[in-house]
Amino acid sequence: MPSICSIAKRGAIIGLSAALAVPGLPVAAWAQPVGLPSMGSASSAELSPMLERSLGQAIMAQGRRDPTYIDDPELSQYLTTMGRKLASFAPGGVPDVEMFGVRDPEINAFAMPGGYIGVNTGLIVSSASESELAAVLAHEIGHVVQRHIARGMTQQNQNGMLMLASLAGALLAALAGGGGNLAVGVAAFGQAAAINRQLGFSRDAEREADRAGFQMLTKAGYDAQGMSQMFARLMNASRLNEGAGGGSWASTHPLSIERMSDVQNRVRGLPASRHVDSDDFWYLRAKMRVVQGRDAVSLRSAGQQLQDEVQALSGVRRSAAYYGLALQAFQRNNQAEAERNLNLAAADGRNSSQMAKLGVDIALARKEYPKALELSQAAVKRWPDQRALGIAYAQALQSVGRHTDAQEYLRAKIKQWGNDEPSLYQMLAQSEERNGKPVEARRDLARFYVMTGAFAAAESQLQQARGMSTDFYEQSQIDVQIKEVKDKLAEERQLLERFKSG
């Protein structure tokens, strides 16, 4: 099963991995995964969960600047909801996991320190069922549960430690630059992938992740066949690619017959069951087919595949294909074609939160702001838990100049979704600025930067806010915020210096 240790190439995110590797690192070290020293209990020499999470946050703070990172509330909510559902059935405790999407056609998913799990668009598009996708995520969560990443990273392996020091150096450079250097951000994410590729997981670690993942998959109500079906698909892809580069999974993370047989035996030992795929799965799968297109050729291919599905399929899958075509037309700025395909997607009374969101986006693009407000208001009433629709509604309120209403709505949603949707603070700051509240705007923008790990930018906003304020009590509050941000920045620097010198 793919994981961060297996990444050999992942488009733009790790396209620089080879160039960023530590000079003088022997090529042989890349070819032989070092595995884990044992499958016993975690040793005191390992990263503590708190330090591991901090390292993951530092990597993500820069990784979010990578052009292939997908900043999409619909996808993030779907993946993280699925991941947390699976994690709630993890053996030995519930890990803190956060999923994010990566624009890359390669079939892969990967875990990073601290429970951050990246999911390639290629994996989503190639999954024939929701259970197949869940199987891969469950396997990656299995690595998180067993703390394989932390245990592998803290082995006393010279090459691994050199690469970890190089990663820490890249992150420190990003901090020194205020977090605004995209090239350094890409380097940090790329080196994180390279380190885990160097570490590798042993056969015992893979079996542990398989078994933990299988338990989570079945207890969460997904079809156990999803794991064996995905294993078979990946094994077949490995054979097809053998000798021709093979991609990350085929070259560094081969699926053994033993692992395949173990999963199949476990499936046979369970009563037959069938999981009904959610509509969200099919609409987001169609969306990711469009999103992962990077050039004219891949976009044409995606369009043709969606057209083929329109002709061959029925029900929700046909609707999802029309939605994908509508989204592709919207991205080409052809609003008339987008609306036409969206109407076809809604045939037979079908609807989804994704379709509703695209309808609002089309209205906003046409500057039909009252219509956008009407559509988004109806959508949030029907799907109140969908964060993307909540954001669209706030945008519609802002578009018609109702910034006071937007502030009230955004503050309510921050209480509900704030930890998972930092952009709400950014939008709140925009409305506060428009309403003549520059101090509040900068304080809330600082909160957005803190949540995304850009501590230097957060401090800058707070310093501006303090300079604008004439209220002693407010200035004192801002001083406290500035100290908290400086402390967090210092803690992150100390953590990275520790790895750099380690």
Summarize the structure.
The protein is mostly helical.
Folded structure, characterized:
With 502 residues, the chain is mostly helical. It has a domain at 4-268. The protein is 68% helix and 3% strand. It has helices at 11-14, 17-20, 27-31, 49-63, 73-87, 121-126, 130-145, 148-153, 158-176, 182-199, 203-219, 225-241, 247-252, 257-268, 279-291, 296-312, 315-331, 335-345, 353-365, 369-382, 387-399, 403-417, 423-434, 438-451, 455-468, 472-501, and strands at residues 69-70, 98-102, 109-111, 116-120. The chain is globular. The relative contact order is 0.11. It is an enzyme of class 3 (hydrolase).
Total DSSP E strands: 4
**Mean of pLDDT:** 82
- Going across the biggest sheet, name each strand in turn: 1-2-4-3
Our count of helices gives: 26
Pfam family, one: Peptidase_M48
Cofactor: Zn(2+)
Protein name: Beta-barrel assembly-enhancing protease
Keywords: Hydrolase, Metal-binding, Metalloprotease, Protease, Zinc
Primary descriptors:
single chain; 502 residues; mainly alpha; 4-stranded mixed beta sheet; 4 strands; disordered N terminus
